């Protein structure tokens, strides 16, 4: 693309940014030239933030989400409902659900889903710690909030089999036609299931 | 957007990336989570690259482009034509022209264009050093490669007035309908000028 950038320092910085997913060399160059216009101390802070993050971030010993401390802010929060556990694949799912401000329970981050094609088995996920949490006896409900893919369904079923003997309600998040979606463009499986799992209409005035 | 990220370190890193132009918080989060999956030494290198760049980059004393050394790779190259100087607005323009592999002369980076609206006058640009280069007597041609905006044209005219008394040919890059452009969608000014400045047809077989 740029056969001969006039500066090796510039090339190095462009290449580092272009390693990030979805960032091409043209975008990287634009961002690097932006950084060069910032005060030295700001760029120093920019660079150091990632090093500090990588070196100091921990995984919560209870729910395995990213955390600054041994127990994350959610797990150590006194007003969260610690008897309801939402099982998700990744940290991003935790952030997405937190973002809805509709959930007051705690989480369990599996670290992925069972996918024999990608060589991910139950042993690669945090399933054993989840079973320990279930065995500890303080949990009333476990919500399975995994992807609606084949792998997600397989993982849900695997977890269900492991968890069904505990006195815990196992639920999954509601599947159906999303708000703002048009029926015409909804896939048949989703539409079919949403008719089968129809719910009483709640009129709001 | 994310009212309560579970980690302050994560929040800090997302905010640093989201300061970059065109990077939103969702993208920033995706990039930070990607960085967290990389080995520590890679993230260390990533962060340090920008700090080193910002602290060590220089501006070429001859042409004012970004450079690792006092004189940039182009200005110190023995096989470049040092009697032809292409005047551009920014370092990005240098890279764009280098990228075409069609130019063997050297450059002069103005650092912007004259724009009274933005408070940029001739004194804010590297016009005085350009006149010094012209006065040194080794330059045969100066190519003005500025934007085709009102400000660009004004700057071209200003430079022309300052340079016309030197025994130097003053040229500008060709304006016209771009390759791959359809006439129907070309603006009237460009199309009008491209008819006025028509050139002999060179048939290639």
Question: In terms of topology, how is this protein built?
Answer:
Two copies of one chain form a homodimer.
Chain A: H1 8-18, H2 25-36, H3 40-56, E1 58-59, E2 66-67, E3 81-88, H4 91-100, E4 105-109, H5 127-135, E5 141-144, H6 150-163, E6 169-172, H7 188-196
Parallel strand pairs in A: 3-4, 3-5, 5-6
Antiparallel strand pairs in A: 1-2
Helix pairs in contact in A: 1-2
Distance between the termini of chain A: 60 Å
Q: Which CATH architecture of the domain at 79-172 in chain A?
A: 3-Layer(aba) Sandwich
Biggest interface and residues each: A-B, 60 and 60 residues
Strand adjacency order, main sheet of chain A: 4-3-5-6
Assess the beta-strand content of chain A as a share of residues.
5-15%
CATH C-level name of the domain at 79-172 in chain A: Alpha Beta
Quaternary: homodimer
Helix content of chain A: 40-55%
* Element pattern of chain A in H and E: HHHEEEHEHEHEH
The low-confidence runs of chain A, each spanning 5 or more residues with pLDDT under 50, are: none
CATH topology of the domain at 79-172 in chain A: Dna Topoisomerase Vi A Subunit, Chain: A, domain 2
* Mean pLDDT value of chain A: 89
Number of helical runs of chain A? Answer: 7
Give the strand tally of chain A. Answer: 6
CA radius of gyration of chain A: 22 Å
